[in-house]
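$ fold --in a.seq
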Amino acid sequence: MAKRNLNALVTVKMLNEAVDAILRGVERMFDKQDKRIDGLDKRIGGMDKRIGGMDKRIGGMDTRLARVETDVRDVRRRMIDHEVDTPTRKEFSDLKARVDKHHPLVG
């Protein structure tokens, strides 16, 4: 870099060169930030797609889980119905004794 006389007056040309240099530096800084932001936009776009896919999968799981819940309720209902309709061992023995008394097996 050439030595300049610090006491010399600043010319319009010197001022324009300084302003241009500053503006180029600022432009480079903005360009770097723009590239970073563009990269972030792409990454965010990819994440949005993945999240959308996960939402669909979760929605499908909700549907399947609701079906399982319905199936469990049906099984419980059938078990309760079975318990109500099925006599205990003592009730069965008493009923069998009454039937055998009135209708003995011929053997």
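$ fold --in b.seq
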Amino acid sequence: MQRGGIWVHAVSVGESIAAAPMIRSLLVQYPQLPITVTCMTPTGSERIKALFASEPRIQHCYLPYDLPWAAARFLDQVQPRLGIIMETELWPNHIHQCFLRGIPVVLANARLSERSARGYARFAGLTRPMLAEMAWFAVQTEAEAKRFRDLGARPECVAVTGSIKFDLSIDPQLLQRAAQQREQWQTTQRPVWIAASTHAGEDESVLAAHRTLLTSHPDALLILVPRHPERFDSVHALCQQQGFATVRRSTGQAVTADVSVLMGDTMGELLFLYALADIAFVGGSLVPNGGHNLLEPAALAMPVLSGPHLFNFLEIAAMLRKAGALQEVNDAAALATAVQGLFDQPQQARNMADAGLAVMKANQGALQRLLDGIGRLMGKR
């Protein structure tokens, strides 16, 4: 384990994706320093490995449990100059052990929903000293900044920098690969939609919507991507039970004309699978899970659909909704109607896609503001 660099904690796959542009920038900005990236889930670990497999200065491990002795041993082994925690993953013992060692800790791309804030407030005796020991909060919105201050963060250490998810850049080679894949599968003329990051209770609705869609668009292709790998087999079985000709992405089988569902059961390919489709539904939103990243399909110039449960992305959803880039549905019937409407009205689909791109571009710059703040803290070390 290389010592003395920067420690970045990204709990799972979503945080790992959000952290990637920041980590790449830190590699350039601090060319002599190692970067230790920790996570707490297998999906997050797989994503980190896929993103940085060829970078020798990136070292990766799971974060130990938040026990004083475990946190102390981890920090004594890594000896970071700075700790960066992504979004909302606050572990009091790790933060306190950093404070004892004089290691500044940043909460990057910080977000805090009303519900989470109420939860932290119930443990004020633990929350207030923990937040007071942190060096800087780079917060997405003013409403969230106020919640952090109210919970005990030092006001001078809280700054609204925006969401770095707006700074997502799409590799042109990814778009080229996706176009080539559609040509190879002969799906360039087929209407293709994706239901991404679905949770238990949503797949049935998505498949019901697809069945309805097939009555008007019999050649439609659904790309169905469950959020969690442990559900891949059960969702595949569900597709087969319901009579859909289904191919699993992991098998490498071609998507032929008779295939109506492609199941995304690979790791690290979500952006590529989005790029294969014309319309995106973002899961975790028909069930009360709070939704997932709406900006990935927006960055790919796709019209975006979701369910009503978006409490983890209220501000981003509001921006996209106001711009006309997001359409929300409540059930399978409404989802089928929305997808069919966009296939039947390509100009409306293009307008939604253009609106989403405009929102992305108008809100970029958070990554640079975050890097500037990190630079100030590193300069004091």
